[in-house]
Amino acid sequence: MPAIQAADSPIFFFPGVMVSNLTGSNTVTDRCTQARSNVQLWPPQASDLVAGRDCWYQSIRLNYTAGRFVNGTGVSVWPTPFATPPTAANASLAIWVAELQKLFPTYKYGENLFILGYDWRLDLNSMGSSSQLSQLAAAILSRSSASSRAIFMGHSLGALLAAQLLSLPDVRARVKGFISYAAPFGGTPAAILPRTSGELAALVPPELLTGVSFPIAGFEALVRGVTWNGVKGLASLAMMLPYSTAYANGTDPVVVRTASRSYRVSQMAGLLRDVGDTLLADTFNKTHTLDKLIANGPIPGVDVYCVYGSNISTVRQLVFNVTLSDKIAPLPSAYLYGRGDSVVPFDSLRLCDRLTTGTSKVRRVPGTSGKHLGIFIEPAVLAQTRGIIAALRRRI
Ligand SMILES: *[C@@H]1O[C@H](CO)[C@@H](O)[C@H](O)[C@H]1NC(C)=O
Ligand SMILES: *[C@@H]1O[C@H](CO)[C@@H](O)[C@H](O)[C@H]1NC(C)=O
Ligand SMILES: *[C@@H]1O[C@H](CO)[C@@H](O)[C@H](O)[C@H]1NC(C)=O
Ligand SMILES: *[C@@H]1O[C@H](CO)[C@@H](O)[C@H](O)[C@H]1NC(C)=O
Ligand SMILES: *[C@@H]1O[C@H](CO)[C@@H](O)[C@H](O)[C@H]1NC(C)=O
Ligand SMILES: *[C@@H]1O[C@H](CO)[C@@H](O)[C@H](O)[C@H]1NC(C)=O
Ligand SMILES: *[C@@H]1O[C@H](CO)[C@@H](O)[C@H](O)[C@H]1NC(C)=O
Ligand SMILES: *[C@@H]1O[C@H](CO)[C@@H](O)[C@H](O)[C@H]1NC(C)=O
């Protein structure tokens, strides 16, 4: 690897939920026709969605033991590090790489510009107690130095992970700046839909699933079924549900209404129980270590910038015309809206501000260019990013 110039702070980007590829091996064969090794589990392959569904669920599903989420029994799953640049020309990460290299010609993907893959199934607590965080830390330490401290950029769940990594003193010592895009610090009602209705659209970039779509009758219902089953026990999803103290200033609003009852923020564990997700219901509090992170306030030695949309119509309450139970619910029959970035409510996004050292580091993107998915490749946001990186590179 060529020496990094002092001015070229390496850039590490942490993508959002379900963007990193996952590979796995499965030694148990009660659901799979044979043991499998080194198979691509995410993005799923067409065969996973049809005949191989039960095998796929078994491979991807987490177990819980000794206070943290782990791989299922007999299963190993690991993220693919992004060793090569993303190739799909119009995928958001490919656009991001191309734009960054254009804005700063001294950056070259794989040399001083990296996208880090991670096991997005996990909550931050479990990432910390598995080897996940330490593996990422090692990757960062080996590609940065005390004289060319790094810049972190994180989108959505990836920004939460970046913030968590910055709580490690040896990582923090190697980082001068962190740009957080659209971080859902207080959680978002959008994370409820995959669990109740098998609907992912609000959370994942559309290009991610184009590879697995094939035009057969009933495809949409099939995908919703697979999603609904696939996100059972998904710790990261529970972590991104609205949670009690950080959300809406602790006012505990109703986020879900159904034909028979309503659920406040403080009742999300009860909602998980009602939809049959006993594991996430039982562990709900364990997946919420974010309050502690925010309470710690600004990160010593790291300039934190918060970039997010603030004035786009965003769902605050889901109204179902059925009672939620352990089966796939229809999509909500109505929604109540507030302001936010189209996925995360404004007051959740604003919790990021507490990590900054001043209002000058908060960028509320006007208009619709602050939309949650792909915010980091919006031209207006790229212009902001350029200014922030230039300022950070001047910083010793
Ligand atoms: C899953 O298995 C892989 C490979 O053994 C391991 O690296 C990873 O830490 C495990 N993850 C969890 C959450 O248990
Ligand atoms: C979780 O672990 C328990 C105890 O080892 C085991 O019985 C169960 O099958 C595991 N579940 C999964 C999804 O691997
Ligand atoms: C992830 O998997 C997809 C589908 O197989 C592939 O097109 C893509 O290049 C992979 N990405 C990485 C970073 O390995
Ligand atoms: C990417 O390009 C393909 C083919 O040109 C197009 O069908 C698709 O909609 C594009 N995806 C995005 C996210 O722009
Ligand atoms: C939350 O509290 C802040 C500061 O006290 C206040 O400015 C803001 O309007 C409150 N937001 C809501 C949704 O009540
Ligand atoms: C989870 O936290 C809430 C709010 O702090 C508390 O009321 C509840 O008893 C906790 N639940 C469990 C299972 O610890
Ligand atoms: C927010 O959006 C509304 C409706 O789209 C618009 O009327 C209002 O002026 C905007 N406010 C700000 C501060 O941009
Ligand atoms: C319930 O909501 C679904 C989804 O919006 C809708 O298709 C259905 O017609 C509604 N049913 C009733 C009885 O209102």
From TrEMBL:
InterPro entries associated with the record: AB_hydrolase_fold, LACT/PDAT_acylTrfase
Family matches, as Pfam families: LCAT
Signal peptide: none
Protein's name in the database: AB hydrolase-1 domain-containing protein
Organism of provenance: Tetradesmus obliquus (Green alga)
